[in-house]
Design goal:
heterodimer; A: about 260 residues; alpha/beta; Nucleotidyltransferase, domain 5; five-stranded mixed sheet; 9 helices; 10 strands; B: about 400 residues; four-stranded parallel sheet; about 50% helix
Chain lengths: ~260, ~400
C-alpha cells in the first residue's frame, strides 16, 4: 500500500437507485458531503460529483459499486457492500448502535451489530421494492402531496385505517377505493405509512432487534415513519443528522481505516 | 491462475450430448428411455427392466413462458421449467424419453403431472408423507412393485430378481464413488470448485451404461487424488467454506452457487438432490426381497416433502462437521413451500447448534434479482470471514429486546 500523508483524503461514494452520495474525509474528519440524483446516467453523475477530487482513495458502495470500480480504474477504487457501509457509518456516528435500519430508494436493510460493531446478521428485501422509499414516492404522487412533506401530511390524520396491500399497484387501488368511500386523504396517507412500518417491523423481528436502533437512509427523513417505528418498537430510534449520507460515510470510513 | 482439473472432466461436461448420441442408437434397437424427475425414482427397477433412466428436471428460465400458458405463474420454477420443456418439445432428453415416472413429492408437481401425462405415458408413484408412520414402508413397497409392473409393460421385459440385485449392487457402487468424489472437498485446500463438482455430480442421473460410468468415476477419482496431493486449489487460502443446502440446482440454475464462488466463497458441499443427499443411503444387498430393500432405502431420502424431515438435520449436522463448514446458505426456489418453511428449522439448527452464519435465499431461474443477491451474498461472506473460528471472540451476539405490541 502507498504511504499517505496527513492531508491526504479518502472518499466514500454510495451509488444507490435514487441518489448518489459522496463523503470526503481527511485526517481531521468530514471534509465535504455531496448528494445528487442517480438519473439514467449514474456514471455521468458520478463524474460530476468526483470532478473536484484530486486522486486519493475511493471506496464505492451501493448498486453501482461494480460499475464505478470498472469505470474509474485510473483511481485507487475498492468496493464494499451497502451492508458493511451502513454498519460502519452508523457505528461511526453512534458508537453504541446495535441495530441499523436503512430504508432507501428500493431497499430495506436491517443490520444487527455485535458489541464490537461487526455485522452479525442482516436481512434485506429481495427483488421487490414494496415497502421502500419508492413506495412512498409513488403514493405521495398518487395523493398529490410533495414527497418531502408526505410524512407531516400523514401525521395530520385523525383516524388509523389499515391498508393491507404492500404491492405498490395494489396499494394504489386500495387507496383509490378508500378515497371513493370518502376517506380523508391524510388518513389514507397514514395507512400507507403504517403498511411500510409493519413490513419493516416484520423484517426487524426476523433479525432480532437490540437497542439502540439507528435509522438511516432517505426514508429516515420522514417523521411519520419515525413516529410509527418508535411506537412499534416501544423505544426511540436514533436518526442521524444526514441519514442518507450514512452509506457513503461508512465507505469513506472503510477507506480511512486503511490509512 | 489456470484452474487445474482432471483431464476427464470434459467427459462430465459433455455427458448430456454423449448420452443423447448413444441412446438414439440403442433406441433404434428397441431400448427404452425412462424420463425421471426426482431422487425418489428407483432407478434400479428401471435398469432391471432394461430401460435407461434420465433426469428431466427443468433448470432454465427459457421454457417457463410456455408452461405459464397452462400453469399458474406463482408456481416453483423447477415445475414450470420441466413442464415448459415438455409442452414446447424443446428438451432433447424429454423427446428421447419413451415414458415418464413422477412422484407425489409436492402439490405443484403432482398436479403438473396430470398435464404431463397427456403428452407421454406417465406413471405416478404415491409417496407416504412420513417414513415412520405404520404401513408407510408397506405402502411404498407396493408402489415400487406397481412401478415395476409399469416399466415391465413399457419395455416388454420382465424384471428378473437376480438382475435387480445386480443393479442394486451397481447403483450402490455408483453412490459410493460419487460420495468419494464429494469428499475431496473436505481438504483444507479445496482441490476443485463447487461449480465443477456440481457438473460432475449432475451426471449421476444422466448416463447410458452403468459399468462405463463407474470406470469414468474411478478415472476421475484417480486424477483428483494426484491434484489433491499437489495441494492445488482454485480458491484463496482464506475462502469461507460454504455448505449449500435446499432445492436442487444444476447447469442453468447455478446462479447462487456461481455467485458465492465469484464473491470469494468455496462451496465445499451441496446438501441437495444434485449433491450429496441420498449418497450415503445404500440399498441393503443382503435383504432377500430386493423390492423391500429398495423401499427401505428410498423412503429414507431426507426430502422436505416428508414430515417431519428429521433426516435432513441429521445429515446436515454430520456434513457441517465433516466438511468443516464456515457458513450455510439455504437456497429455496420461489413457491417451494416445503423447503421454504423448513428453512427456519435449518437456520435455527445452523445458528444455534453450530454457531455458524446462515443465509436463506429465495429465488427463481430469472436474473432479475442478481444484483440484490450479489449484495446479500457478498455481505454474508464478509460475516463468514469475520466469524470463522480463527476470528472467534470478536463479540457476542446482541441480546434481543421485546417488542411492545
Amino acid at each position: 500500500m502507498k504511504s499517505r500523508s496527513k492531508d491526504q483524503t479518502v472518499a466514500g461514494i454510495d451509488i444507490g437507485s435514487r441518489s448518489i452520495e459522496l463523503v470526503v474525509l481527511n485526517a481531521d474528519g468530514i471534509l465535504r458531503q455531496l448528494k445528487t440524483p442517480t438519473t439514467f446516467d449514474p456514471l455521468g453523475q458520478c463524474r460530476r460529483l468526483m470532478g473536484e477530487l484530486e486522486g486519493g482513495r475511493v471506496i464505492a458502495t451501493g448498486y453501482g459499486r461494480k460499475l464505478f470500480a470498472e469505470s474509474f480504474g485510473q483511481m485507487d477504487v475498492s468496493t464494499i457492500t451497502e451492508i458493511q457501509a451502513y454498519a460502519l457509518g452508523a457505528r461511526f456516528l453512534h458508537p453504541e448502535a446495535r441495530t441499523v435500519l436503512d430504508i432507501g430508494g428500493q431497499d430495506t436493510k436491517v443490520i444487527s451489530l455485535s458489541e464490537t460493531g461487526k455485522v452479525f446478521k442482516f436481512e434485506m428485501n429481495d427483488r421487490c421494492a414494496a415497502g421502500t422509499g419508492k413506495f412512498l414516492e409513488f403514493m405521495a404522487t398518487a395523493l398529490q402531496v410533495p414527497l418531502e412533506s408526505f410524512g407531516e401530511y400523514a401525521l395530520r390524520s385523525d383516524r388509523r385505517i389499515a391498508i393491507s396491500s404492500m404491492c405498490t399497484v395494489f396499494a394504489e387501488s386500495e387507496a383509490t377505493s378508500l378515497m371513493a368511500r370518502g376517506e380523508r386523504p391524510e388518513n389514507i396517507a397514514m395507512g400507507l405509512h403504517m403498511a411500510i412500518v409493519q413490513r419493516t417491523i416484520a423484517m426487524l423481528r426476523r433479525v432480532g432487534v437490540s437497542a439502540p436502533v439507528v435509522f438511516a437512509g432517505g426514508v429516515a427523513h420522514n417523521p411519520c415513519v419515525v413516529r410509527l417505528l418508535e411506537e412499534q418498537l416501544g423505544q426511540p430510534v436514533i436518526v442521524p443528522g444526514n441519514p442518507d449520507m450514512v452509506g457513503a460515510l461508512g465507505a469513506a470510513i472503510c477507506g480511512k481505516n486503511g490509512f | 491462475m489456470i484452474p487445474m482439473k482432471p483431464d476427464c472432466f470434459e467427459k462430465f461436461q459433455n455427458a448430456g450430448e454423449r448420452f443423447l448420441l448413444e441412446v438414439s442408437e440403442l433406441q433404434d434397437n428397441g431400448k427404452k428411455v425412462a424420463g425421471i424427475y426426482c431422487l425418489f425414482a428407483p432407478v434400479e427397477i428401471v435398469r432391471a427392466a432394461g430401460a435407461i433412466p434420465v433426469s428431466l428436471c427443468g433448470k432454465k428460465e427459457k421454457p417457463i413462458p410456455d408452461a405459464e400458458k397452462t400453469l399458474p405463474p406463482n408456481l416453483c420454477p423447477l415445475i414450470k421449467s420441466s413442464y415448459g420443456y415438455a409442452v414446447s418439445d424443446t428438451c432433447p432428453f424429454f423427446s428421447a424419453s419413451d415414458f415418464l415416472i413422477g412422484e407425489t413429492t409436492c402439490d405443484g408437481k403432482k398436479k403438473m403431472y396430470e398435464f404431463l401425462g397427456r403428452i407421454k405415458p406417465l406413471h405416478l408413484m404415491h409417496l407416504p408423507y412420513s417414513a415412520a408412520e405404520p404401513h408407510a414402508l408397506e405402502f411404498w413397497c407396493e408402489q415400487i412393485h406397481r412401478l415395476g409392473s409399469f416399466v415391465e409393460e413399457s419395455t416388454g421385459q420382465r424384471i428378473d430378481r437376480d438382475h435387480l440385485r445386480f443393479q442394486i449392487r451397481i447403483h450402490n457402487r455408483i453412490r459410493k464413488l460419487v460420495r468419494r468424489i464429494s469428499l475431496f472437498q473436505r481438504a483444507q485446500r479445496v482441490p476443485i470448485s463447487g461449480l465443477d463438482i456440481m457438473t460432475v455430480m449432475e451426471t449421476k442421473s444422466c448416463f447410458v451404461n452403468p459399468e462405463r460410468y463407474i470406470s469414468l468415476l474411478v478415472e476421475f477419482i484417480a486424477e483428483m487424488e494426484a491434484i489433491a496431493v499437489d495441494g492445488f486449489s482454485p480458491f484463496e487460502t482464506n475462502a469461507p467454506r460454504v455448505l449449500l443446502t435446499g432445492c436442487p440446482i444444476g447447469k442453468g440454475s447455478d446462479k447462487v452457487l456461481s455467485m458465492i464462488e465469484e464473491s470469494g466463497g468455496a462451496v465445499v458441499c451441496m446438501e441437495n438432490c444434485t449433491g450429496v443427499k441420498g449418497l450415503d443411503l445404500l440399498v441393503d444387498e443382503e435383504e432377500k426381497d430386493p423390492f423391500l430393500a429398495l423401499a427401505r432405502r428410498y423412503l429414507q431420502i431426507p426430502c422436505s416433502c416428508i414430515t417431519p424431515n428429521t433426516g435432513r438435520l441429521t445429515l446436515l449436522n454430520r456434513l457441517i462437521n465433516e466438511y468443516r463448514v464456515d457458513a450455510v446458505v439455504d437456497l429455496t426456489l420461489q413457491c417451494c413451500h416445503t423447503y421454504n418453511i423448513e428453512s427456519r428449522i435449518i437456520g435455527d439448527c445452523v445458528e444455534k447448534i453450530h454457531g455458524l452464519p446462515f443465509l436463506h435465499v429465495e429465488t427463481d431461474y430469472s436474473n432479475s434479482d442478481v444484483e440484490q443477491l450479489r449484495t446479500r451474498i457478498e455481505a454474508f461472506l464478509e460475516i463468514a470471514r469475520w466469524s470463522a473460528p480463527a476470528h472467534a471472540g470478536n463479540g457476542k451476539p446482541p441480546a434481543r429486546i421485546q417488542f411492545s405490541s
